[in-house]
């Protein structure tokens, strides 16, 4: 059985809105057309994807599984079309605080006619954008899951403790981990609801505590109510280039060479 990507896109729209009318508006199609496409998809898969009642529309367990699988599949299909239709482009992912302009500029100068795009990434999606093809190569902060990736180490930078400007350690030239004993360390793995750097910093500013960041990230997000202090005995953060191992190209090799020079 061949899956119809258009039907999958329609399904994802309904799953995200949980309302056929709003999903149809977002897709710019008539609601009866959308309903027919979803029924056709359910018939092809031989499962019910939605429970429809007067109380609303909800996903069935089969629908939840399809949604989890459909999103990355559609992202990969979109990336494939982008690569085929834009063979003269090269996309570079980067995290806030990392300066990539010299490398991007040099790559473009070496390859006249090549359009080099940059895509800002986050701690949570820096690897996802590589796997799903949104970028050809990405600057990542290690450690990351390396399965399916090629990795080229580039540099290291010190880590700092970011804390409120009124904190007892705010005036120190540097601290050690022992100085942070007893402090509440704000980290996305240990603090519910914290996903982004911005959320970490807001949490520290509002509720106190400390978060550990690479120096360039702390500088990029500098604000008056927070300060950063070097931590002497924390291992430096490693920055590397990463790419999908099965999509390794001469252009990626060229960019790796450039990134190591500048």
**Quick one: biggest sheet?**
5 strands, mixed
At CATH level 3, the topology of the largest domain is D-Maltodextrin-Binding Protein, domain 2
Q: By helix and strand content, what is the structural category?
A: alpha+beta
Unreliable stretches, pLDDT < 50, 5 or more residues?
A: none
Number of helices: 9
The level-1 CATH class of the largest domain: Alpha Beta
Instruction: Provide the CATH architecture of the largest domain.
Output: 3-Layer(aba) Sandwich
| First and last CA, distance | 50 Å
What value does the Rg take, in angstroms?
23 Å
Structure description:
By secondary structure, the protein is an alpha+beta fold. The protein folds into three domains: 5-82, Winged helix-like DNA-binding domain superfamily/Winged helix DNA-binding domain (Arc Repressor Mutant, subunit A); 88-154 and 237-261, Periplasmic binding protein-like II (D-Maltodextrin-Binding Protein, domain 2, 3-Layer(aba) Sandwich); 159-230, 3-Layer(aba) Sandwich (D-Maltodextrin-Binding Protein, domain 2), CATH 3.40.190. Helices cover 40% and strands 22% of the residues. The protein has nine helices and ten strands. The strands form three sheets. Strands 4-3-5-10-6 form a five-stranded mixed beta sheet. A three-stranded antiparallel beta sheet has the order 8-7-9. Helix 1 crosses helix 3 (31-45), helix 1 packs across helix 4 and helix 5 packs across helix 9 (250-261). The longest helix is centred in the first third of the chain and has 25 residues, at 61-85. It is globular, with a radius of gyration of 23 Å. The mean pLDDT is 90.
């Amino acid at each position: 059985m061949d899956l119809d990507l258009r039907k999958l896109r329609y399904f994802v729209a309904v799953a995200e809105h949980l309302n056929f009318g709003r999903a149809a508006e977002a897709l710019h199609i008539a609601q009866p057309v959308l309903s027919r496409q979803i029924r056709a998809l359910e018939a092809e898969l031989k499962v019910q994807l939605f429970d429809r009642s007067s109380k609303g529309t909800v996903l069935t367990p089969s629908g939840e599984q399809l949604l989890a699988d459909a999103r990355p599949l559609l992202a990969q299909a979109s990336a494939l079309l982008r690569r085929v239709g834009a063979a003269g482009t090269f996309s570079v992912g980067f995290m806030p605080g990392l300066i990539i302009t010299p490398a991007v500029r040099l790559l473009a100068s070496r390859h006249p006619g090549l359009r080099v795009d940059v895509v800002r990434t986050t701690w949570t999606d820096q690897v996802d954008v590589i796997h799903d093809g949104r970028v050809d190569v990405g600057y990542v902060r290690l450690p990351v899951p390396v399965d399916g990736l090629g990795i080229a180490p580039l540099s290291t930078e010190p880590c700092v403790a970011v804390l409120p400007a009124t904190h007892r350690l705010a005036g120190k030239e540097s601290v050690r981990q022992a100085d942070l004993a007893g402090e509440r360390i704000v980290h996305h793995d240990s603090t519910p609801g914290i996903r982004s750097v911005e959320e970490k910093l807001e949490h520290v500013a509002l509720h106190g505590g400390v978060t550990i960041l690479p120096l360039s990230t702390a500088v990029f997000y500098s604000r008056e109510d927070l300060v950063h202090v070097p931590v002497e005995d924390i291992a430096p953060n490693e920055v590397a280039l990463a790419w999908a191992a099965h999509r390794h190209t001469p252009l990626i090799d060229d960019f790796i060479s450039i990134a190591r020079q500048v």
